[in-house]
Design a protein that fits this description.
187 residues, alpha/beta, Rossmann fold, seven-stranded mixed beta sheet, 7 helices, globular
């Protein structure tokens, strides 16, 4: 078994409660932030693609992309930091629990900016302290200030920033599922 298969199995091991949380609480809220044609960068095993079937996903993990395609979802393999789409091709991009896996996010953020239309929406989610510590593949921790600074420096403007499932930073060290989500616009 290789690393791609291992990580795909890890993602498939999510609990039913975790899936219910995503489908009935998290995704309906994030979906209100999105508009138009949506790209899910780091789509994993396709949870968001299933929730929003008109979206398109990309992932560096070919095993994940195969699982998505086998389920009838639109997904493409991407090379690291290279999105296989034309400029200004999407109205919204979502990067959910991916940024923390990347040592140097600048090149990917530039690609996301490239494929977004002017004024397009960029939604980013990162885990809190406990969620960050739960995955040995995580490379960078983002609190609210660092997340905002990183994304704004990449050419985006902050619209909103909040914790999920509740906007309470005290949950960060206590709850694995706690994440910080930001909605930004392409400047």
């Amino acid at each position: 078994m290789n690393a791609s298969e291992d990580y795909s199995r890890y993602l498939q091991g999510r609990s039913r409660l975790g899936l219910a949380y995503r489908n009935h609480w998290l995704y309906p809220r994030l979906n209100r932030w999105l508009r138009g044609r949506v790209l899910d960068v780091g789509c994993g095993i396709g949870d968001m693609l299933r929730f929003l079937p008109s979206s398109i996903g990309v992932d560096v993990n070919a095993v994940n992309v195969s699982l998505c395609r086998d389920a009838g979802l639109a997904a493409e393999v991407m090379a690291p930091d290279v999105l296989p789409f034309d400029n200004a091709n999407f109205d919204s991009v979502i990067l959910d629990n991916v940024l923390e896996h990347i040592e140097e996010p600048g090149p990917l953020l530039a690609e996301i900016r490239r494929v977004l239309v002017d004024g397009g929406v960029f939604v980013v989610g990162v885990p809190g302290e406990r969620g960050y510590a739960a995955d040995p593949d995580h490379k960078q921790f983002y609190d609210r200030a660092r997340l905002e600074k990183t994304i704004v420096e990449a050419g985006f403007v902050l619209d909103r920033l909040r914790g999920m499932p509740l906007d309470c930073d005290a949950l960060s060290p206590r709850m694995t599922q706690f994440c910080i989500y930001g909605a930004f616009r392409r400047a």
